[in-house]
Design the sequence.
């Protein structure tokens, strides 16, 4: 999990889901028949700026997950030989240019998939870029850039579909797609990594005897799936649910109903309806 599909995103997404299970949906999110209403972002331009800032910060996070200069000579059994290279957090060799390329291709795959699956919706297009990065992050030190592109697209598709399935099935209101983009994409990224990198060494330690298959832990699908379950549910959703229950019992989880109603953008929503009626009447 070199760039934390699981240890950051699956845990955080699972935690958010646990909180939302207790918090409940926004007023007006579901109709009397239980059908979800789409409450889109009020300002798509700020959505765009915010997510592009996240992309920028995320590349900084990628770079920070590497040791830029490290002498791997002794580590690789070359006593007396200086072998400076960049490594990931597991002290296996990588290059900053390589992880930049896989990062950009996973961003691209997520954007493309988000645009396609949402039929051009700006929120899901930009959020898809983030979901793509998160999906590919588990193995982006070892993936080929084209693998990153494809894996990111698959994870974004899964996150989008899961978001609306959970919304309809369990009446969970994930207002900004946090559970989808972080939790579902992070979970999918861990599982996909287990299959694509099956048999690869999980760390560089003992590399002198690495290829005998006995001195390192190999990446495998079962281990990655169990890890995904632990991170999403055990370390994420269950603690989130418990803490939210405690806060809810203290009356500190959700704002009062009158405050929520006062904060709704009724005027903006009514103006949008008027604009829609104007367009409809002029084109009919």
Sequence:
């Amino acid at each position: 999990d070199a760039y934390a599909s699981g240890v950051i995103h699956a845990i955080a997404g699972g935690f958010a889901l646990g909180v939302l299970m207790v918090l409940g949906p926004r007023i007006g999110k579901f109709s009397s028949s239980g059908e979800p209403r789409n409450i889109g972002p009020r300002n798509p331009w700020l959505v765009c700026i915010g997510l592009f800032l996240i992309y920028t910060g995320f590349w900084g996070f990628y770079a920070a997950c590497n040791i830029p200069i490290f002498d791997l000579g002794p580590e690789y059994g070359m006593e007396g030989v200086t072998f400076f290279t960049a490594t990931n957090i597991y002290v296996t060799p990588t290059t900053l240019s390589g992880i930049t390329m896989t990062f950009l291709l996973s961003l691209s795959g997520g954007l493309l998939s988000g645009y396609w699956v949402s039929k051009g919706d700006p929120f899901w297009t930009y959020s898809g870029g983030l979901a793509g990065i998160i999906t590919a992050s588990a193995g982006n030190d070892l993936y080929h850039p084209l693998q990153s592109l494809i894996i990111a697209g698959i994870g974004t598709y899964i996150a989008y579909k899961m978001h609306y399935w959970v919304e309809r099935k369990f009446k969970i209101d994930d207002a900004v797609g946090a559970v989808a983009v972080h939790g579902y994409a992070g979970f999918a990224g861990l599982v996909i990594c287990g299959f694509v990198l099956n048999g690869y060494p999980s760390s560089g330690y003992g590399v002198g005897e690495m290829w005998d298959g006995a001195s390192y832990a190999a990446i495998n699908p079962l281990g990655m799936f169990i890890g995904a379950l632990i991170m999403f549910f055990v370390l994420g959703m269950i603690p989130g649910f418990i803490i939210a229950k405690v806060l809810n019992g203290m009356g500190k989880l959700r704002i009062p109903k009158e405050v929520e109603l006062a904060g709704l953008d009724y005027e903006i929503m009514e103006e949008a309806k008027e604009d829609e009626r104007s367009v409809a009447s002029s084109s009919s």
